[in-house]
Amino acid sequence: MNKIVRHAWTAGHSAELYGVNEWGADFFSVSDQGDVTVQANIGANTTSSSLLEIVEEVRQRGIDSPVLVRFDNILAEQISRLNNAFARAIEENDYRGKYRGVFPIKVNQQCHVIEEITRVGAQFGHGLEAGSKPELIIALAHLNTRDAHIVCNGYKDEEFIDLGLHACKMGYRVIFVIETPSELPIILERSRELDIKPIIGVRVKLASMVGGHWNATSGDRSIFGLSIAQLISVVDKLRAESMLDCLQLLHYHLGSQIPNIRDIRSGVVEACQVYVDLVREGATMGLLDLGGGLAVDYDGSKTNFIHSRNYNLNEYCTDIVDVIMSTLDPQKIPHPTIITESGRATVAYSSVLIFNVLDVATFEPSHVPEKIEDDEHSLIHNLKDLVNAANVRNLQECYNDALFYRDEIRELFKRGQVNLRSRSLAENLFLKIMQQISQIAEDSPQKFEEVTQLREQLSDIYYCNFSVFQSLPDVWAINQIFPIMPIHRLNEKPQRQAIIADITCDCDGKIDRFTDIRNTRKMLPLHQLKDNEEYYIGAFLVGAYQETLGDLHNLFGDTNVVSVNLTEGGFEFVHEIEGDSISNVLSYVEYDPQTLQNRFRKIAEQAVREKRISAADRLKVMNAFSASLRGYTYYER
Question: Are 541 and 472 in contact (CB under 8 A)?
Fold first, then answer.
């Protein structure tokens, strides 16, 4: 008789289970020791470090979880990858224009991120996209190369336009992209007043539609951009003002996460036809801005699923170059400088949110006695009879009977005919039966319809030290999926199935949809907690939008942030930002911390006068109050 050989669980099994090699983009992997590692290229060599080691050193520095870890190397490498991929496509296809990327500041406005992007991007002429006056100020203060572009989208008032025009005079390549017809008269009036010629772009609404999240910027009903009829009116107005030579850029944006390469090609084809006719109209042109769209493969499936993409970076760049050339060459129109506003793909990989688990709720029987007392209700005896009665032939029958008996007992409890202790016994018996049914269904050759639902009902809840609303708002708002997994103990087989709950005490403060190569899954495999040992989970690819969109639900503020640079010898901390204190977040919602302290001091003094506490107690209370104001908003061990 052949024996079944059960191989020991390895870190490789965990890498496959969580799909890290698929979504990690060569930045993340699992070591033989069972830790998630982060790696980057330094010259001709690749260096890597354990996330757990980074977290442990963060703790030694007095920085508590949750903590957002940014990796400067990844940010730099993503900028290099994008520019080098376009450079290869341009060279291989004999394209006679340039590539000049711009980073949309709105995707991540944090100062250290912008500083790193502009530092690395300087060698490529990589610019910035500004959609507001504050973002324009950021762009002007950080771009030191005149070879880079500042693309100005969004609504622009006189102050915005004046600042951009003055920058043009200084030598900046500031481009005013007209989003609505009402902007053009302001641009023309301010340029005449200041006697500075503007560089004008037009954002057009394309008929092309795309799939995926964030696709509302495609099609005729896009909120932003000019219709074709409005575009012609702008051209006529510029011609009448003898300023058609100022029109140099055509811009469109179909979405920031386009999973299907066919949609990307379709958009470029339509945009190129618009570009051709603008040249024929007499516009100077020379710049074609494709907006965002380069997707992030959040689930690693490499498909046109909304959280993935069915193309790689080289294919993306080559297809864009090919479509532009095949459209413009027959018309003998010079190749324009290609601009893309790839924000999501630039910064997503560079940030990891790491948090610890505080507690676990399990749906297991706490105690099932061997014998049920004779005076217990008959329905409880019926439940006890079902324990150990399930087999592959009667799973459905046992399942239905257990549900019926449990629900009847709950109704009896509401009417006062069953007491609390008896109901507790019934609930434990029911959970015992459900566990047995679930285990038998795993190996049953017959299909049990409710098995998936049963697994979900029996899954654990891991309570974690973070706020979904503050750190992962897209999970709550639009069902965005991020790769989430433990960062250590990966050479152990995870035996628990769980959902994740945050500490906001809100029913929406949870994560119950997780990445999977075949589909999304509703439970995440996790390890049993060990006494006196922290268990860390990482949410990956969170560098785009999440920091900026976060809110103050339950007054949980910004998390601690550390920026790390991987080195040949390991890693170094280059930047640290303390998360919001309680005093900080109270001031955000219009409380004055000093006033709060003074009010509480009066209340404490009143308690002394009423002899509820002593003067010494008052000192302890006030010290505790002051310490709390200075403390972290999250759970502290």
Answer: no
